[in-house]
């Protein structure tokens, strides 16, 4: 057994180790803090080692191949439902990213949560999350992916509501779970539909999987009604699931509220990994989503329908399935190197929807972020916006484009969130950027790393990874054959991104400290209990730099935010080639080809303009006091207030969904009490009434008659008894009378004879 | 040996009645012993049987002139449900360890009920099945009327009347079938092999089906269930939701659908898109799923939430039956098992762990208590039970509901979508109850100093008047038993599915298979 096979066989350990750790931590007592933290960090480190091994093995693989291990789970009807895991470039890259970011955030949490009494529980949930997320990444079955998806959602729920005694946190947790569940419902239905059509939920299974050509042919040929192919319908249902998880408009409402959770949670779950799961899902099922009639190709396996051969037992060995080599499957490969290349002209309906939803989300969320004042909410809307960018990249440029931004974004957004965490920690649980300021001098490490993250997010050219990945997306959007509008919207969103990040950094790090020094009495602080004990005793109120356990992860992430970009530049698209199963070499000439340079210049210009305008508005003359109104508010107060209120989505949902549901529920309750309960009561009343009627009839009619008969009988008996009163004289008298009558009769008889 | 589950339960019930009044502890251990015996017997019978086999346990001639046999037997479906009964019985006794009011009679009636339930699941003679079915109804009445709480006489009477109306309908149907088949036999297999005339089946099927489905909480005949569940003592609600409702669903499958498969065929005309009894009952099942969930969403009494959730979950069973797909039917049987476990656990937490300690079930009263601090074990158990109940993958409910949904997708795509909405409502009411009852904010949240100093204090709700009695050992064992069962089946469903699935190849399901079962 060579090293490749060994890692494929051992890959299941990557998710199972943290899951098991989560189970063990659940049993630990509250005081075993060190044990919980070290177990969690140890297990996720082991997962990281496995992930790196897996990535190395995949990179060293001579020809692009998918390693798959499938096994039977249970027998459903007359077929087996299988589960399995897959090691291919996509899962290898995600594995390393998830494990690495998790590890860094675990370490950060040791510092951030040091004073929380539920430290053990926190690491239990974090480990569970990491395990489920790793499982999601390596799943080779839509069902297993769904299972991990739900588990990830559950841990997200538990962690958002970690400080559940804050009503806002409890409400946010519930909102997050239910909103994503709406998406999950569509996911579930899509999965069931897929199963009903293809008879399998495995992605890759020696040609029988649902993402392989024969099943795709089938899905594209069948229509679901209204002329929509089943492939499109299923793809859209799955995309609805991804929209819920990845906070796409209009299912984004939960993500900003999810910031009620501890900041490391926001960084890990609601910025870097879980919310990207929707994008990952779309990348995983991209062959299905991108399926059009043009992609139907004959296969030897089955022509029109899939026979029930899935009942065949799956032994669980390693299967090697070649990744479709370049040039044969069109949809994987439209790398936007040259927009004028004879690429695909037909785009599947599902991908069009993905693109439009993505780009609208990108613009929408970026515009909301401009007007927010909570440091984490700005980042949350930024995350929503960037997820929109990823969807746009997936829709227009294929897997590689979307995934590249996913990976780079994971690093710089985790960096920004942890930086925000460090700021919040240093400012004693202050989250309002209007009450910060001047932190650049007080927290130098945090400031410099935050600035790197900000520049990566804004797309400052050349040095920062965000520039390259966003550039790639813009490039793909530019070459999209359907419409040019997404490209223009995306440029606008990129401009806003640079603007709101500059605004934030000016508010937080430049100028003077606007928070009150006597912050310790601030009632807000009570709501976030993690540090209450220490803060009052140590620093007198001025912000302070965070300990090394928190700053070192920041530095590592900052390095990642810079370096990663160089793996995916147009000159050397190693990352994209790796995902698609190709080897790319360094060719500087590609930079010059087909307008690449022009687009790069445009994107740099956009970032520059955004930053400059932001600095001109906020940095030149930083606000002096916390209650000073926002410069933008002067321009157009009405628009600004709409933005600050997030386009009133929450209010809209409250009126359109929450209240009708509650009213309907009350109506059902009323029906149960009055209608059905009333029916039962009516039946019982009628029965009782009938009983009374019967009783009356019985009493006064049947019974009365009976009584009268009885009375008559007894009276008759009384009369009769007079003949037997025991007086011999009376008897003798009767005998005498009898004899007399007899004699008379006899005489009468003789007379006639 | 399997028949001894019945004799052990009924025999111990008699023995308990003969026990001296003051030997309360003996009564508990005796009852626990009998239940454990039943569990061991049922588990060994299940896991030692060859999948797909039917075995006759006992067959004696009982009333020869009418062709009635004392015929006990078991196929995979029976075995799984008998195993469920064993689990629920043991857990129920563990959760009623603290019964102080006439424990001897309580456990005697409890075991009588269990014995009747075992009998129904094992009877393969319809007369015998009916007799056991009636045996199971009587103790329910007394358990609720004597040991119950809220409006117990009303609830007990309502439940008993509903049950008897249902069984009267069943009896009429059975007698009619007996007469139509020649009056020679009451054996299930023989009657199933008899091809009844289509017109007869068309009225006999709904009669018998509704008769049984009343007990399975078919909307709109469900109203006995919430009131009954709420009024019943903890162990009785566990059994009521856990196994008694399954009696109804089991009867629907075993009797109504098996004897009268043609009753499921189309009428030949359509009205509002409804063209057969099958459509009617599928629609009612989905209505129950949505409606039960909706009503649960606005309940103020914690136990009513669980009561209505039972109505909702039993809708999945009935929908699974009406799909007439193998996958839907196995899903329905698995859902019976799953709901039996999970509903039992939910009622145990509400009735035993919470109500017996704080003496209120009103969610508004529970909210300020922050029970997750006072009763952390109860909070964790209820969280897990809620997750199992809302169909999180990894718990048994997910596999069952997934199968039902796949079956429904083939048979009724629109209803499958509505059912999905029902799952969503399930999440909403589950989380609502969970957060209100256990994880609500503390009342003293506003004054920061007090809450700051209380941190790190012993795990006692700061505003609770008296320390709550800690969770006892039997409660812990019972909870772990049920959670483990749900997890085991959820992670490895083939554990039970390999017995359930081949049962549908039995000869008495021929009629159903002919009627579209693939």
Structural class designation of chain A? mainly alpha
Main beta sheet of chain B, described? 2 strands, antiparallel
Task: Indicate the percent of residues in helices of chain B.
Answer: over 70%
Strand order of the largest sheet of chain B: 1-2
- Which shape of chain B, going by the Cα principal axes? globular
Profile the largest sheet of chain A.
3 strands, antiparallel
Low-confidence stretches of chain A: 302-312, 325-343, 518-539
Q: What helical percentage do the residues of chain A reach?
A: 55-70%
Which assembly state applies to the chains in this document?
heterodimer
Number of domains of chain B: 1
Descriptive account of the structure:
The complex is a heterodimer of chains A (753) and B (518). Chain A has helices at 3-10, 13-27, 33-60, 89-112, 119-138, 142-160, 167-198, 213-221, 230-245, 254-257, 263-272, 277-284, 286-289, 349-369, 375-397, 399-426, 439-442, 444-458, 465-478, 485-509, 523-527, 532-537, 548-563, 574-579, 589-592, 596-619, 631-635, 637-644, 649-721, 728-752; strands at residues 65-76, 79-87, 318-322. Chain A is mainly alpha-helical and 753 residues long. Chain A has a three-stranded antiparallel sheet with strand order 2-1-3. Chain B contains 22 helices and four strands. Chain B has one domain (3-443, 468-513). Mean pLDDT of chain B is 86; it is low at 443-462. By secondary structure, chain B is mainly α. Chain B is globular and about 70 Å long. In chain B, helix 4 (103-122) packs antiparallel against helix 5 (126-147) and helix 16 runs antiparallel to helix 18 (413-437). Chains A and B meet through strand 1, helix 6, helix 7, helix 21 and helix 29 of A and helix 11, helix 13, helix 17, helix 18 and helix 19 of B.
């Amino acid at each position: 057994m060579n090293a490749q096979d060994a890692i494929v066989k051992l890959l299941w350990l990557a998710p199972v180790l943290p899951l098991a750790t989560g189970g063990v931590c659940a049993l630990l007592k509250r005081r075993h803090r060190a044990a919980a933290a070290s177990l969690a960090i140890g297990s996720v480190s082991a997962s990281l080692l496995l992930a790196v091994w897996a990535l190395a093995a995949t990179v060293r693989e001579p020809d692009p191949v998918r390693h798959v291990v499938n096994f039977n789970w249970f027998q459903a009807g007359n077929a087996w439902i299988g589960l399995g895991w897959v090691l291919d470039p996509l899962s290898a890259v995600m594995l390393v990213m998830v494990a690495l970011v998790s590890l860094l955030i675990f370490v950060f949490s040791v510092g951030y949560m040091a004073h929380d009494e539920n430290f053990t529980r926190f690491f239990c949930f974090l480990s569970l999350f990491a395990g489920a997320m790793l499982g999601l990444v390596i799943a080779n079955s839509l069902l297993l992916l769904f299972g991990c998806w739900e588990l990830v959602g559950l841990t997200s729920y538990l962690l958002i509501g970690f400080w559940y005694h804050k009503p806002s946190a409890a409400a946010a947790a519930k909102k997050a779970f239910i909103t994503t569940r709406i998406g999950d419902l569509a996911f579930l239905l899509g999965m069931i539909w897929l199963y009903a059509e293809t008879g399998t939920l495995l992605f890759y299974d020696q040609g029988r999987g649902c993402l392989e050509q024969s099943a795709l042919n089938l899905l594209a040929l069948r229509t679901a009604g209204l002329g929509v192919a089943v492939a499109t319908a299923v793809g859209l249902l799955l995309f609805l699931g991804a929209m819920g998880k990845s906070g796409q408009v209009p299912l984004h409402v939960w993500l900003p509220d999810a910031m009620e959770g501890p900041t490391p949670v926001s960084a890990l779950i609601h910025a870097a990994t879980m919310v990207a799961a929707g994008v990952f899902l779309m990348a995983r099922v991209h062959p299905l989503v991108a399926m059009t009639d043009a992609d139907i190709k004959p296969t030897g396996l089955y022509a029109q329908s899939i026979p029930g051969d899935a009942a065949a037992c799956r032994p669980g060995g390693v299967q090697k399935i070649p990744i479709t080599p370049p040039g044969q499957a069109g949809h994987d490969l439209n790398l936007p190197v040259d927009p004028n290349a004879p690429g695909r002209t037909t785009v599947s309906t599902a991908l069009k929807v993905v693109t439009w939803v993505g780009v609208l989300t990108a613009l929408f969320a970026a515009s909301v972020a401009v007007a927010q004042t909570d440091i984490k909410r700005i980042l949350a809307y930024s995350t929503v916006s960037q997820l929109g960018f990823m969807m746009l990249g997936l829709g227009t440029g294929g897997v590689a484009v979307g995934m590249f931004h996913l990976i780079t974004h994971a690093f710089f957004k985790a960096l920004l969130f942890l930086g925000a965490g460090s700021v919040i920690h240093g400012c004693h649980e202050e989250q309002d950027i209007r009450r910060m300021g001047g932190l650049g001098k007080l927290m130098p490490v945090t400031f410099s790393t935050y600035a790197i993250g900000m520049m990566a997010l804004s797309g400052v050219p050349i040095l920062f990874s965000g520039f390259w990945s966003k550039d790639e997306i813009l490039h793909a959007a530019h070459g999209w054959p359907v419409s040019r509008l997404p490209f223009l919207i995306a440029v606008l969103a990129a401009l806003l991104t640079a603007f709101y990040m500059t605004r934030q950094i000016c508010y937080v790090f430049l100028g003077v400290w606007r928070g009150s020094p006597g912050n310790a009495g601030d009632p807000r602080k009570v709501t976030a209990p993690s540090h209450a004990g220490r803060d009052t005793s140590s620093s007198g109120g001025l912000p302070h730099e965070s300990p090394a356990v928190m700053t070192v992860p920041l530095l590592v992430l900052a390095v990642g935010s810079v370096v990663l970009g160089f793996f995916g530049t147009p000159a050397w698209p190693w990352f994209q080639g790796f995902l698609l199963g190709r080897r790319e070499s360094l060719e500087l000439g590609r930079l010059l080809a087909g307008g690449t340079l022009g687009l790069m210049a445009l994107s740099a210009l956009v970032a520059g303009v955004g930053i400059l305008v932001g600095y001109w508005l906020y940095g030149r003359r930083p606000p002096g006091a916390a209650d000073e109104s926002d410069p933008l508010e002067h321009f157009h107060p009405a628009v600004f207030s709409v933005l600050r209120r997030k386009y009133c989505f929450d209010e809209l949902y409250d009126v359109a969904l929450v209240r009708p549901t509650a009213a309907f529920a009350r109506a059902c309750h009323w029906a149960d009490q009055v209608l059905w309960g009333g029916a039962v009561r009516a039946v019982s009343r009628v029965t009782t009434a009938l009983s009374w009627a019967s009783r009356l009839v019985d009493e006064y009619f049947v019974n009365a008659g009976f009584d009268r008969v009885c009375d008559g009988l007894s009276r008759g008996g009384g009369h009769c008894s007079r003949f037997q009163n025991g007086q011999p004289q009376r008897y003798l008298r009767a005998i005498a009378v009898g004899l007399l009558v007899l004699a008379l009769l006899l005489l009468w008889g003789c007379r006639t004879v | 040996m399997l028949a001894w589950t019945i004799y052990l339960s009924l025999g111990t019930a008699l023995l308990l009645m003969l026990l001296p009044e003051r030997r309360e502890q003996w009564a508990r251990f005796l009852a626990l012993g009998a239940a454990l015996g039943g569990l061991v017997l049922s588990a060994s019978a299940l896991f030692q049987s060859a999948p797909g086999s039917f075995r006759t346990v006992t067959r004696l001639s009982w009333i020869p002139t009418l062709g009635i046999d004392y015929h006990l037997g078991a196929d995979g479906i029976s075995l799984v449900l008998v195993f469920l009964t064993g689990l629920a019985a043991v857990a129920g006794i563990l959760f009623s360890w603290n019964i102080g009011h006439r424990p001897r009679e309580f456990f005697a009636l409890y075991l009588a009920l269990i014995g009747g339930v075992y009998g129904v699941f094992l009877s393969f003679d319809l007369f015998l099945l009916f007799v056991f079915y009636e045996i199971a109804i009587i103790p329910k009445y007394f358990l609720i009327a004597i040991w119950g709480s809220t409006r117990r006489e009303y609830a007990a009477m309502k439940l008993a009347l509903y049950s008897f109306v249902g069984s009267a309908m069943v009896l009429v149907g059975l007698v009619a079938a007996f007469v139509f088949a020649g009056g020679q036999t009451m054996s299930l297999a023989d009657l199933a092999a008899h091809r009844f005339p289509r017109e007869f089946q068309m009225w006999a099927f709904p009669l018998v089906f509704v008769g049984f489905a009343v007990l399975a909480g078919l909307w709109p005949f469900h109203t006995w269930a919430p009131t009954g569940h709420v009024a019943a003592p903890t162990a009785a609600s566990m059994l009521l939701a856990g196994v008694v409702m399954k009696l109804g669903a089991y009867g629907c499958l075993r009797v109504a659908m098996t004897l009268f498969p043609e009753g499921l065929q189309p009428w030949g005309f359509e009205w509002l898109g409804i063209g057969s009894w099958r459509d009617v009952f599928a629609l009612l099942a989905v209505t129950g799923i949505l409606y039960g969930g909706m009503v649960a969403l606005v309940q103020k009494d914690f136990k009513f939430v669980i009561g209505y959730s039972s109505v909702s979950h039993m809708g999945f069973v009935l929908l699974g039956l009406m799909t007439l797909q193998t996958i839907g039917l196995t899903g329905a049987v698995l859902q019976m098992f799953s709901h039996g476990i999970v509903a039992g656990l939910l009622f145990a937490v509400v009735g035993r762990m919470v109500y017996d300690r704080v003496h209120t079930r009103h969610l508004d009263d529970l909210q300020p208590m922050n029970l997750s601090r006072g009763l952390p074990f109860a909070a964790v158990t209820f969280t897990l039970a809620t997750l199992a109940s809302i169909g999180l993958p990894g718990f048994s409910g997910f596999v069952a509901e997934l199968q039902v949904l796949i079956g429904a997708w083939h048979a009724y795509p629109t209803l499958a979508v509505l059912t999905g909405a029902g799952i969503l409502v399930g999440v909403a009411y589950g989380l609502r109850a969970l957060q209100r009852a256990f994880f609500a904010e503390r009342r003293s949240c506003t004054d920061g100093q007090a809450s700051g100093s209380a941190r790190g204090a012993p795990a006692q709700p700061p505003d609770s008047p008296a320390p709550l009695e800690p969770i006892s050992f039997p409660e812990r064992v019972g909870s772990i038993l049920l959670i483990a069962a749900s997890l085991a089946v959820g992670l490895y469903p083939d554990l039970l599915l390999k017995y359930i699935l081949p049962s549908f190849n039995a000869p008495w399901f021929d009629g159903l298979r002919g009627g579209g079962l693939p």
